[in-house]
Fold this protein.
Amino acid sequence: MSQSHPPSARLAAKLHRRVCIVLTEDAVLAEEVLARKKLAGEIAGRLSERALLIRAGRVEVVLEELRKMGHTPQVVGKAAETRA
């Protein structure tokens, strides 16, 4: 029998700001990324079977390693490095 929480129960959540997420085409590719030693240390967490949360400040390292693996990562949005 599954355990249910009362309606007033709180669930733990962690808020991340300015994050980088690698979204793979399928779960197998996400597993391949996690299996690579140089990339596994840069992963802060797995959000779904296809979405990997990258550690802060490690985006360029991850992009470079993905390219070495033969992938062509597409950067969808990039925060400004300096603010006026």
Q: What stands out?
A: The mean pLDDT is 83.
